[in-house]
Structure formats: structure tokens, C-alpha cells
Amino acid sequence: MRTFNEADLISLFSALRWTVVLVALALACGGPLALLLALMRSSRLAPLRWLAAGVLQLVQGVPLLGLLMFFYFGMPVFLGIEVPSLVAVGVAFTAYTAVFLGEIWRGGIEAVKQTQWEAAACLGLTRWQQFRYVVGPQAFRMALPPTVGFLVQLIKNTSLASVVGFVELARAGQMASAATFQPLLVYSVVAAIYFTLCLPLTVWSRKLEARLNGAR
Amino acid sequence: MTLNFSQLWRYDDLLLHGALLTLLLTVIAAVAGTLIGVCGAVLVRGGPRPVRWAIRGYIEVIRNTPALIQLFIIFFVLPSLGLRLPPFEAAAVALSIYFGAYAIEIIRAGLDAIPRAQLEAGECLGLTRWQVFRHIVFLPALRTIYPSFTSQFVLLLLGTSLASQVSAEELFHTGGFIDSRTFRSFEVYAVVCAIYFALVMAFKLVFAGLQRLMFRWPVRR
Amino acid sequence: MALVEIRDVHKSFGDVEVLKGITLDVEKGDIVTIIGRSGSGKSTLLRCINALETINGGEIRIEGERIAADMPNLRQLRQRVGIVFQAFNLFPHLTVERNITLAPVLTGKIAKDKARDLARDVLARVGLAEKIDAWPEQLSGGQQQRVAIARCLAMSPHLMLFDEVTSALDPELVGEVLKVMEDMARQGMTMILVTHEMGFARTVATKLVFMHQGRVWEQGKPAELFADPRTPELRNFISSVK
């Protein structure tokens, strides 16, 4: 048994890298999927809408912890090979991000008036061009505050990856706590790190939101 | 690899028990958290300044740190305050505090959305403040917060799975136990997820039904 | 004793003095119309009479009783003074019937089983008997405003205040509301109105009050004031609204 020291602090911060990697991975892979889901949900083809709605209900209907276990234990079952835990965890967070961001962005798209699609269509733009140049930019403005808000959720929730042994900030905290028997101190430090990461984003999201409401 | 669910059926009563504990944990945290939410929202709108700051601080801390870490801290903090609670109870406390922070924000927004003119109209008819709240503010405010409140409730239901990480007995913990007996990890967690999914769907149906029952007046769009 | 006595009333919002010493009497049965440019303090005066705003100086008495926002029997007073707002302010989650009967039942003015009769009664007076089970959002603006009037009538007030009640209405809906108010005037209701409807001010009102810069600039019989305004401000105002 030993007391919490700088070495522990350093190990916490080096584990923080993996938290950041996980967030980046989830956004990089989940973001495009989210856009796809959002577009499917505002599509004119009913089967596409249903499919997207079904995926959404499914992923939002199970705990993130369950999603992690599902992919962690499921990928070897389906692929027949062991995968590094980063892959399994990354897939789970990708699915999580795709669904929640997709829902937020759909809200943004729907907040843009239908007449904007029509006006763009009347100018002879294709459906994609209508989105790319007319509806998308407006939807982006509307959806930015909740998107930043979701980023906070994502950062916090990467702590769940610790459950399958992936060493990010929360897991490093658990290990330091076990080594030092100072759980209160260690977890307070861990919480403080998350807090410093998340609070500016929360404040930013709130400011964006206020600006959006003021502009209306 | 092949899937094999057959071993799991022996544990059906354990799973049922776990699901009931998950429901219990959810309901306790939801009720306690809503109480925190109501008191907090009222105080944050009209309380003395130090109280308002304290509540704002509470909300920011809870909303900007992971629930898992909060759970650990509370699990280890309570004994040092002389409160030796079993894991389930400790998890209930942590989840109530967690849900309360979100509930304050939701309820505050609902109260803010009531037009002042509605309060004035009630006052001008000679109603007491309580009558104005009960008959004029309550239902429209409830309708405003209903979507965000119910989806927060669903997130809470799913979030109770975190309690398994401090060995509180609930559905996810039960899954871990069965996993350790059968070594059919994937199958076990697939079934556990399916049960959560069923619970979520059941609640969504109930919420939709209640919504139709309670909010029958038309609104301008 | 006048029904409403207003004595040297002052009211400020921050640094801005909106009412600069208003004195005015309203007798039982009077139909008082307050006119004036926006910002002249008309609506504020009306809101002071119902203690929706706290006055900074002077006093207001209704039936001899001094009005204050912190008076103990404010609620009893408000049951005797009805107010109709520009924006109707119906309760969206209650049917027309419940909008009307909520206050009479809660304040013990009427038994629950008599409530529907009361609603039917006052709705008939505003010509909307058939809308008793409708939701507010299903009605036109004019109909909503008539329900708001009926809601006041159900409290059998001794005095009714109207705060620009036709200003939010489409032009074609103004007439139906004015007609209801004319009927009430004919039945002897004491009324104070802030309005831009000069026709109503000219033909129905028993007293005309012209407010300007927070003061009662001129008051008197409508016909006389319209025919022969004494001040250039009133003359300008009359010609600008024609």
C-alpha cells in the first residue's frame, strides 16, 4: 500500500489520451453514420424511414453498458476472430454516437421549413444539392448546440469502456484507487479531470443555444 | 462459434428478479430525483442567492462528470460520513442525486415556459396562488416538460445498469452472475439487452398512452 | 361616493414615470373610454386599478376600499372587478365551460352542479352558447375574446376593465366583440376601456378621457370633446386616428 503520488497522476493523464482517442473515433465513424440516419429519417421513401427508426429504437432501447458487452463478446462470435478491445469498444461507441447524433441532426433538419426544400427544388437542384446547399447549412445552425451537448455526454460515457477493461481515464482511476486505497481522493481527481473537459463544452453549448434563440 | 441459449433458461427466475430490482431502482431514483427537481427548480428561480448558487453548482458538477464516477464517489463517501449502506441503497442514492440534477433543469424550463399572462389571468379571477398553480399552471407545464422528462426517465432506466459496477443487485449484475456460471457471455448479455429493450418499450407505450389521456387540448403549432 | 376614485396616482417603471398624478372618478353605470397615443400610460392605469401594478403614490379606491397589491382581501376585490386582456388569456387546457366555471367554483361563488348552467347563461349573453364544449384553440380570435368576456361575467363583477380588447383581432372580427360590449353597456355594467375604437368611444361611452404623457389631458362628454377639443394634442390625436 502506498499513497497517491505524481506517478499516479501521470498515469491518469496518459490514460486520458485513450479517452480522447475513443471520442475522436466515435465522432469520426459515428458522425457520417449519423448523417446517413438523419437523412434516411427525413427521406421520402417510407422503408428507409422505418429502417432508420428501427435502428434508433433498438440502440436507444438498451443500456450503453449492454451495447459494449454485446460488441465486446459478440464480435468474436460473429467474426470468428478475437479483436483488440479498442475495436469492440470503438464499434459500440460508433453505434451509440450514430444513433444519438442522428436523432439530433434529424431534429435540426426538420426544424428547417419544408418550403426551403421546395424553394430549392424549384431552382432545379437535385435532392442532395437541396440538402447540401440550402437545408443542411440551416439545419447545422439549429443542431449545433445540442450536438455540442451530446459531445459532453459522449466524453462522460467513454468511462463505461472501463467495464470491459479498456484502459481510459476511469479505468486508470480504478487501478490507482486499488493500488493506493484512497478511492475518494483518486475518484475526485478523476471527476475533476472530466469536469474540466466537459464544463467549457457545456458552457459553449449553452451560449450557442442562447444566441440561436436570440436570433429568432 | 455457435450460439447457445439453452443453458440460460434455467436462470429465468433470476433474470425476472433482476428485472424487478432494476424497476425498483429506477422508480426510487425517479421519485426521489423528481422531488429534488421540484424543490431545486423552485429554489433556483426564487430562492436566496447563496442557495441558487449552490444549486447551480450541484447541477454543473453532476452534468459534467460521468455517472459512473459519481457512483464510485458516493459509494466510498457515504461510509466516511458514517452511513454504511448496502450497494443497492448506495446506488439508489447516487442515481437519485444524478437524476435530480437533470430534473431541476427540465422542471425549471417548464415553469419558465408558462406565460406570465396566464398567471395574471388567474390572479384577476380572484384565485389563490395555490389554485393558480394547481388549475392553471400545472397541466400545461407538465405537457411542456413531458417529452424531455420521459426520455430522461428512459435514460435513467438504462443508466441503472451502472449500479452493477458497485455490485448492487439488478438486471445487469444478474447478467454478470449468469455469465460467470455459464460462460456464455454473448448470449447472456444479448438476453439482458433484450429485457432492457422490452422494459423501455413498455414504458414508452405507457408514456404515450398517458400523454393521450392527459393532454387532450389542441395546441397552436 | 364614486365607484372608482383615483386620486393623484403616480407610477414609475425604474426611472421612467408613466403616470404623473392621475385623478379620475368613475360613477356606477359609467362607460369610461380612455384614449391616447401608445406610451401615454392608458394600459398602466387600467392595470393599477386591478392592482396588477403597484402604484408609487396617490390612492385608488373601489367602492370606498383602498386598493394595494399587498392588501389582505385582494382576491375578494378581484372577484368584483373583471378584466379582459388584449391577448384573451384563455386557459388552453380547459374547455370553454371550464374556463368560465373554474373561478366561480373555486372561489365558492357557485355550487359545482350549477356551474354548467352558469356557463350556458353567460355564453348566451356573448352569443356563443353552442361553443360550450369547445377548446379555446378551436375558436377564432373574436370568439376567444367573447369567451374571455363571458369568463368575467360569470363572476358577476361590479366593474369591468377592458385593455385594448380588439387590438389583437383581425378587422372583420372586431364588430362581434364590440357588439357584446355594447349590450353590456346597455344593461348597466360599469366599464372602463382602453381602446382605439373611436366609434365606440363616440357612441357608447358616457365619459371620454384623453391621456397624454402620463396625465389626464382632457375629459368630458364624448360628443363635446370630439366636436370641440380644447387642446391641440387632442385635436391632433382625433385627426390622426380618423
The biggest sheet of chain B amounts to: none
Intertermini distance of chain A: 59 Å
Number of domains of chain B: 1
User: What oligomeric assembly is this protein in?
Assistant: heterotrimer
Q: In total, how many beta strands of chain A?
A: 0
What are the secondary-structure elements of chain A, in order, as H or E?
A: HHHHHHHH
Low-pLDDT segments of chain B? none
Mean pLDDT of chain B: 92
**Beta strand % of chain B:** under 5%
CATH-level-4 superfamily name of chain A: MetI-like
Which overall shape of chain A is indicated by the principal axes computed on the Cα atoms? flat
Instruction: Report strand % of chain A.
Output: under 5%
CATH topology (level 3) name of chain A: MetI-like fold
Q: Do you know the CATH architecture of chain B?
A: Orthogonal Bundle
Supply the CATH class of chain B. Mainly Alpha
Radius of gyration of chain A: 20 Å
Question: Ranges of chain A with pLDDT <50 over ≥5 residues?
Answer: none
- Characterize the largest beta sheet of chain A: strand count, sense, and whether it forms a barrel: none
Describe, in plain words, how this protein is organized in 3D.
The complex is a heterotrimer of chains A (216), B (221) and C (242). Chain A contains eight helices and no strands. With 216 residues, chain A is mainly α. Chain A has helices at residues 6-41, 46-60, 64-79, 85-111, 114-122, 127-157, 169-180, 183-215. Chain A has one domain: Orthogonal Bundle (MetI-like fold). By secondary structure, chain B is an all-alpha fold. Chain B has eight helices and no strands. With 242 residues, chain C is an alpha/beta fold. Chain C has a single domain (4-241), classed as 3-Layer(aba) Sandwich (Rossmann fold). Chain C is built from nine helices and ten strands. At the B-C interface, helix 5 and helix 6 of B face helix 2, strand 6 and helix 3 of C.
Which key terms come to mind for this protein?
heterotrimer; A: 216 residues; mainly alpha; MetI-like fold; 8 helices; C: 242 residues; alpha/beta; Rossmann fold; 6-stranded mixed sheet; 4-stranded antiparallel sheet; 9 helices; 10 strands; 36% helix; 25% strand; cell membrane (chain B)
